[in-house]
Amino acid sequence: MKKWSRPLHGWLFFYCVTVLVNNTGYLAYMQAQTEEAAVLSWQFLYLGKAWTGFSLLMLSLELCHGRTYGKFTTPLSLANVITYASVLTLRHNGFYYKSVSFVQDGLFPHLVFRKGPWHHVFDAIIGLYMLVGLTVLFRSMKRQQDRRRKRQVFLILLAVYFLLVFFYTMQRMRHLSSVRRA
Asked: Tens digits of per-residue pLDDT, 116-132?
């Protein structure tokens, strides 16, 4: 593979791979007919899902500041590793999910989860990624004089914004569905 001309290209590639893995995992999950297949596809999709927000934040930092911040990003990387390890071992711990069950009703057979303590922490970390990413991108776009560079920052800003809207909408839908069941 050709060597990347800048770390920015590496972060963009990493982001694209995480989104591809996440979407592929969701497709496999929606087609799973057994509990084992659903759990396996859920674990696969988290290989991408756990890193999507992080890779977008790193892309934003690299684009706007020309560097990432090791003291800041190393603990966040560790949080992603903990999240993925927790999902890989979800049958043996209640750290990320307290319980998992498989149901056949609805549009397609699916897993039903009860969130564990780390799930709430990781949701807050994702929110932090979005907040920091949006702040960095807004400030950078405001300072940019070069139109081409301003457009690049705007497109990444748009991606972060849509992820934030999607994240909020999904959280809200889950909350409303749990209120209706109660």
From this structure: 999 999 989 988 888 88
